[in-house]
Amino acid sequence: MAKDIKKGIIFDIKRYAVDDGPGIRTTIFLKGCPLRCWWCHNPEGQVLEPELTYKRRRCIRCEECVKICPRTAIAYTADKVRINRRLCNLCRKCAQNCPAEALTIIGREICVADLTKEMERDMPFYAESKGGITVSGGEPLLQIDFLDAILKECKERGIHTAVDTCGYAPYKAFERISDKTDLFLYDIKTMNDKIHEKYTGVSNRLILENLKRSAESGRNILARFPVIPGINDDEDNIARTAEFLLSCDVRGVSLLPYHRAGIEKYKSLNRAYKLKKIQSPSSEELNLVKDKLETLGLKVRIGGG
After folding, report:
1. 216 class by beta-carbon count within 10 Å (0-12 exposed, 13-18 middle, 19+ buried)
2. Residue-wise pLDDT tens digits, 231-268
3. Is the pLDDT of residue 118 over 90?
4. Cα separation, 59 vs 102, whole angstroms
5. Do domains 7-48+111-302 and 51-106 have the same CATH topology?
6. Going along 69-191, which residue ranges are E strands?
7. How far is CA 52 from CA 86, 114, 196, 242, in A?
8. Residue 227: which H helix or E strand, with range?
9. How large is the C-alpha radius of gyration of the chain?
10. d(CA 62, CA 80)
11. Fold of the domain spanning 7-48+111-302
């Protein structure tokens, strides 16, 4: 049976977003990402498939999930639920019967038609604020057929489109959606390939090559630079980042300050969080990075896009 390109897997829809492109926007978060950034604040978007999450703070210790699980994948020990994810087949019975919603399934399949209805609800706000739709993730290019279908529906309705990407995808994916994408929000994490591979799991070579080729093709690109203290905020990386962006004629960059808001999400997925000792950069530290980039010739703002 042929794959239905009109369906995809998302993990969230954020309405009235103001940090994911110009104006008021609806941001659609697609599941699945080829990177594993240590500072990722959306770990629920990394795996393509739906996932079971457990929020201990909500748990009322009723043990209903233990009783109802058909595969005995759930146990109650040390005052909390433990999930054997190898045994769990995501039958959803535990989540459906959890009275406190401590157990939930993250990720759902949705068709383009239903997604379009969500967009149409906010169209008056797009027109008034010059906003639109932003497709984020995860990495939206990982679901290229679904992404292409979403963007096509948007353009048919005259909706401004933005794609938030890490850049790690075949270049043909960029070519496929370029005529339907008004703005690429493009992450640049570090110019040092070894550091990039250590903290994201992949080389930065394809990412930089795709950015350069996309810029040469005349695509509208806003670079986004996550400021991670002690990892990519040193003077050498800042200078090399500015030099590279200017060589691509990409002059706009948004600074995204590292924050620790995703730590609880890692706990709910039973995953280790690797940057526990790093704190968010202060406003003084952010402004220092901003000043350095502006001195080198870039137009810089702090936050979103």
Report:
1. exposed
2. 999 999 999 999 999 999 999 999 999 999 899 999 99
3. no
4. 5
5. no
6. 74-77, 80-83, 103-106, 108-111, 132-136, 160-165, 183-187
7. 12, 23, 29, 41
8. strand 221-227
9. 20
10. 10
11. TIM Barrel (3.20.20)
What's the Cα-to-Cα distance from 31 to each of 51, 69, 134, rounded to whole Å? 10, 25, 14
Match 């009723």 to its residue by tokens.
62
The structure's pTM equals: 0.93
Q: Convert the pLDDT of each residue in 12-61 to its tens digit.
A: 999 999 999 999 999 999 999 999 999 999 999 999 999 999 999 999 99
Are 304 and 19 a contacting pair, CB within 8 Å? yes
Distance CA 290, CA 252 (A): 12
- The CA distance from 190 to 147, in Å, is 27
pLDDT greater than 60 at residue 1: no
Class in CATH terms, 51-106: alpha beta
Domain boundaries, the chain: 7-48+111-302, 51-106
